[in-house]
Amino acid sequence: MKIEGSIALVTGASRGIGKALVAALLEAGAKKVYAAARDASQVAAGDARVVPVTLDTTKPEQIAAAARQAADVTLLINNAGVQTSSSLLTMSAAEFDADFRTNVRGTLEVTKAFLPALERAAAGATIVNVLSLTSLAPFPPLGGYSATKAAAYSMTQALRAQVKAKRIEVLAVFPGPIDTDMAKDLQLPKASAAGTATQIVAGIARGEEEIFPDVMSEQLGALWKKSPKDVERAMASVS
Ligand SMILES: NC(=O)c1ccc[n+]([C@@H]2O[C@H](COP(=O)([O-])OP(=O)(O)OC[C@H]3O[C@@H](n4cnc5c(N)ncnc54)[C@H](OP(=O)(O)O)[C@@H]3O)[C@@H](O)[C@H]2O)c1
Predict the structure, then answer these.
(1) pLDDT in tens, 70-87
(2) Has residue 57 got a pLDDT over 80?
(3) pTM score above 0.85
(4) Which position among 145, 174, 212, 224 bears the catalytic label?
(5) What are φ and ψ of residue 34, in 5° steps?
(6) In whole angstroms, how far apart are CA 179 and each of 64, 144, 192, 209?
(7) Which of 138, 154, 210, 212 is most buried, by CB atoms within 10 Å?
(8) d(CA 149, CA 34)
(9) What is the spatial distance between Cα 52 and Cα 12, in angstroms, rounded to a whole number?
(10) CA distance linking residue 195 with residue 214, whole number of Å
(11) How many CB atoms within 10 Å of residue 85?
């Protein structure tokens, strides 16, 4: 889709990749960016095109209010996510539920609330789900989180088929390790949030159904296209 002139909404815009996505969209010429955050006062001010929106993606009343406030959205970016759970063998049920609630249910409920607005977009609309390489194959130390990101990918594919006729594209983003609060304990080379966001916006502009926005995701993405089994082995061997 054409980013110039688009009206975007980014969830989880208070920090990390979401905050960088707001900046990248403005840089690419978006007309308006609704920066949605649990605490809207955390949204970076300074550009008149940014509209802060209060949105906890696990709270139905806030989702409904955000959809009313941002009824002119043409580009929805579901970025909000948590990594509360860890290994399948050690995580608690509550930790697994927390990840599922935001990464899967939150993404779905926000998407459904914004569908009427996206359907109204005269030139077509786009939904972007910020997933993870762990959507394609699990990172075993984070098996719980990986399962929620795999579920979110399945949802992305089902939705893509169901809204195609409404001229809504559904794109998936598969970042590798990115230097944000979420990955602070991960001892791996990490890409910057700013560079990742720029690549995500470029992928949206090209209408890529699978966006691999950093070096590690590009490499594993290329491998996944040839041999998903090799990606499973590669992810299992990372320590
Ligand atoms: N960093 C990585 O290595 C990496 C790799 C692959 C994929 N990802 C994905 O990229 C996305 C962004 O992650 P990040 O790295 O930027 O993490 P982050 O720095 O921890 O930021 C997470 C963002 O999500 C928001 N959020 C969490 N739960 C929410 C909820 N229920 N409602 C609304 N907002 C909520 C947070 O808001 P608060 O400030 O209010 O907490 C924050 O803005 C996530 O979907 C994550 O799974 C990250």
Answers:
(1) 999 999 999 999 999 999
(2) yes
(3) yes
(4) 145
(5) -80, 115
(6) 32, 21, 5, 24
(7) 212
(8) 24
(9) 11
(10) 8
(11) 25
**Catalytic (active site) residue 145:** yes
User: Which two structure tokens, joined as six digits, stand for 211?
Assistant: 């966006």
Distance 122 CA to ligand 1 centre (A): 31
pLDDT, tens only, 127-152: 999 999 999 999 999 999 999 999 99
Q: What is the 3-state secondary structure (H, E, C) of 134-179?
A: HHCCCCHHHHHHHHHHHHHHHHHHHHHHHHHHHCEEEEEECCCCEC
The tokens for 2 are: 């054409």
Contact 144, 91 (CB under 8 A): yes
Q: Rounded CA gap, 139 and 136, in Å?
A: 10
115 neighbors 160 (Cβ within 8 angstroms): no
DSSP H or E segment with residue 33: strand 32-37
Q: Taking CB atoms and a 6 Å cutoff, what residues make up the pocket around ligand 1?
A: 11-12, 14-18, 37-39, 55-58, 79-82, 102, 106, 130, 132, 175, 177-178, 180-183
**Tokens 């949030």 belong to residue:** 193
Work out the pLDDT band at 45, boundaries 50, 70, 90: confident
Q: How far is the CA of 165 from the centre of ligand 1 (A)?
A: 31
Contact yes or no for 128/200 (Cβ under 8 A): yes
